[in-house]
Amino acid sequence: MAGDTATGSGERLHGEMPGWHRVVDDTGFRAVAQAVRAAGGRLIALWASDRRHDRQRFEVHAAFGDSDGLRWLTLPVDPARPDFPSVADLYPVANRMERAAFDLVGLRARGNDDRRRWLRHGAWPGDWHPLRKDAPIDHVGAGEPDEYAFVTVTGDGVHEIPVGPVHAGTIEPGHFRFSVVGERVLRLEERLGYKHKAIEKRVEGATLWDGAKIVSRVSGDSTVAYGWAYAAAAESALAIDVPARAAWLRALALERERIANHLGDLGALGNDAGLAFGLAQFSLLKEGVLRTHAGVFGHRYLMDFVVPGGVANEVTEQATAHMLAECDRIERGTQELRRIYDDHAGLQDRFMTTGEVTPDLAARLGLTGAAGRASGQAHDLRVAFRPRPYNALEPRMVTHRGGDVAARVAVRFDEVLESLRLCRHILRHLPAGPFVVPLPARARSPLGFGWIEGWRGDVLVALELDGEGCIERLHAHDPSWQNWPLIEHAIIGNIVPDFPLINKSFNLSYSGHDL
Hints:
The protein is α+β, with helices and mostly antiparallel strands. Among the domains are: 1-141, Beta Polymerase, domain 2 (2-Layer Sandwich); 150-192 and 479-515, no CATH class.
């Protein structure tokens, strides 16, 4: 891609990860999207901004990832014609992002014929776009009826099963509409967006320091990934580098977050397939990790440990010794449980060939993260670009081509063991020195970005600052945007009782999907 006139690099952005920003017109927007697609790149995120107050325009932003890094495009949009060219024909995942851009800012994607509201759910007036600058955060007004046009499947014996949005368990809300014959699923259609918390609106005008606490809470199981991505975006705009010790401690927290979530999901997957023993044992392992987090880092889910400029607190030699011993305990327990899972005929019968996503489909629809790697997609920012300290850790990417629940389980087991290896290396080779640096009074650039490989996939935070160095616009993007549509494909041909198992094998975020 380097040197391609269609993608011309534009302005180089400061940061550990390679990234460029470029302002384009409609033709350039489509040209870059097509060039990245042709080269095997991905659409990472698409969002919109209201800049009428200072630039007399709206803006559409798109972030593309390729072998050279992140390409952030900005497309100015005339308020008299608030639309922009769709890229959903090139990247199917863009469909929902483009619809969200209309719901939030009021910009319509030309060429995308799906006009159904994605986020509103009847709670907002029809002309209400909450990320416009003239839309106050504390007043919406009366909503209006919202009849969502789910696709109807017809034929002999076909009937619909609506599930949610409120579920029997203590999980977040999401609506799933199944079209089935008997128990065999012909089609699944999702509707999400019930978790809108106004995070992107809430951070407008916040200082870089105050924004960190809000953004790290986008998705509670990924607080390190979001905290690091936000901190990296702030450091990118400020043009500062964090101390080596801070970078290593961030990686330690990120890998421990990965371990905790994989342990929890492996137990839940065993339970969903009828092996309650697996849930009990993996819950014990995860609980030990969370208690260590509370004792060493100050919070069970590592909230507020990563801050702009470094990390919030030091890790003592005593804590280091404790975590090294814990790595050994977790590894022994994980390997023993893996032998049980692999030898359990009933469990493997439920896992194998269930919820398949072929590598070809995964590539076409942009499946990412651990679920993507289980379908042959070799995407892992830790390996591809090796930001500090991964350049010294030599991370090994785990992949599988099976694409079913069994493959996603196998990837999780392997990633736990690889993260334990990385944690040991970090703990044994932590560099000395400060763990945080003060932030400069003023930013060097109005733009910054952070792009981090979280346990679920790559998390992006894109940041725009105003003239005072406060947040003008922030967009935080969860990999669940890419992966939710794949569940609709993974369930086809399976039976309804397999849906909880398939869904858990992806374990996507509702909250991170709807800001």
